[in-house]
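Contributing new complexes? Match this layout with 2-acetamido-2-deoxy-beta-D-glucopyranose.
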Amino acid sequence: MAISRVSISFFVVALFLATADGEEGEEAAVVEGSAVLTLDASNFSEVVAKHPFIVVEFYAPWCVLCKKLDPEYEKAAAVLSEHDPPIILAKFDADDEKNRGLADQFGIDGFPTVKILRNQGKSAQEYKGPRKAEAIVQYLKKQAGPASAEIKTVEDAGNYIDYKTVTIVGVFPEYTGEEFENFRAVAEKLRSDYVFAHTLDAKLLPRGDSAVKGPAVRLFKPFDELFMDFEDFSTDALEKFIEVASVPTITIFNKDPSNHPFLMKFFNSPNSKALLFLRFNSYKFDVYKSKLHEVAELYKGKNISFLIGDSENSESAFEYFEVKDDQAPLIILLQEDDNKKYIKTNVEPDQIAAWLKDYQDGKLTPFRKSEPIPVVNDEPVKVVVADSLRDVVFNSGKNVFLEFYAPWCEHCKKLAPILEEVAISFKNETDIVIAKMDATANDVPKEFDIPGYPTLYFVSASGKRLPYDGERTAEEIIDFVQKNRETTSDTTTSSESIKDEL
Ligand SMILES: *[C@@H]1O[C@H](CO)[C@@H](O)[C@H](O)[C@H]1NC(C)=O
Ligand SMILES: *[C@@H]1O[C@H](CO)[C@@H](O)[C@H](O)[C@H]1NC(C)=O
Ligand SMILES: *[C@@H]1O[C@H](CO)[C@@H](O)[C@H](O)[C@H]1NC(C)=O
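Output block (do not edit by hand):
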């Protein structure tokens, strides 16, 4: 569940997942005698060592997605504590100073991250299951059992193969031999991502050729061709097959939480992403979907992944991309390597393929989010927006000290009077500009790396960019600007490349 890809995706993923989990649940009731164990650095190892199977949520007190998960996690813990043997759910505040060392050991880089610890904590796998109580219970019961369960009856098959998840079933003439061992090894390795089972009798399985004797692998999935057979049992080939076969041609984004694992995969992929939004209850939905499907088939195995999202469920995504409901159906392309975005509003089904072709051919202009260029800009610290960045910063032939800030950021508020002091001290120097940009309301070009707020840059008259990491005092900043300013107003050389970009 960790959200670690930090490009555009970080923000987008967060807002998608917040809605993908469905309606806001009840507030976390403060349960007397909570079924969830609280662990900290003082007792983590001791408690984990006591349990062959234990689930730990690494959370931070300020994390919104954690607060959404908590009531569901709590309910699941209560049910699972009655399981035989009990399945233990615990939580660990990974943001607490004293706990951070342990969190680092587990490679926690996003919240919430839920880990399944087996074998007294010696093996840790990431929880990749659903986030609703009942589904968490089902998922964890399977996780607590063997990596691959035997299917002996049609009923067993019904329990393991459902219409929401990917299930991988090995069909074997007998449970021995290299094929079976390799299947088991892959099941052990990938068990937190998929459900694995094995059987001696393909007739028990709901789909596919029932005469198959094996060894063969039949992968069941709730989308596309619904099942696929595979017969190469080298572990690498098997893993690769599973990885590719379990990605839908089109990922669905709506209120159904069972799509959540597929959404996670979609956003964690290194591909660029094409997202089509429209109302799922629209009479034209099927036409759009089949057109998108045709295009997605063309791009299969290439570097674009496809999603179709219900615009009724996408308010926060629409807000982020500054589009309105009445502009749907609309298609958005997020280019992964440089965060550029392309948007086509009011798209017709027949335009989808052509638009993507234009994108591939480099014929489209990227969408840029910008506040309006201010009409009056006469405070000492000048306001820069995405649409004026080129003129104020790169083409002005001036030395610009630029702050990227967020309106809610406390450190930025503290810096404001200091920047003003700096700006006033350079008032008579026409070759120096002190400026600021709201980086939450404007797209920041990739040349500026914004790891946090405020981020400070100096761009010299000739276009050289220097990050400013010094003390945030007027004295230090003035000193830095004095040292790095250039008197030239010749802007034709080093700023050329970025001018083209903007
Ligand atoms: C671990 O220690 C913390 C206090 O340091 C305590 O609140 C918590 O209940 C303990 N957990 C267990 C399972 O003993
Ligand atoms: C995607 O692949 C094409 C070639 O198939 C390449 O030209 C393009 O740069 C790639 N885009 C990304 C974002 O990797
Ligand atoms: C700017 O110039 C004016 C007039 O020449 C002068 O009075 C003022 O002190 C100067 N300000 C600074 C900060 O140097």
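Reviewers usually confirm one structural detail per submission. For this one: The chain has four domains: 8-144, 148-245, 270-360, 382-501.
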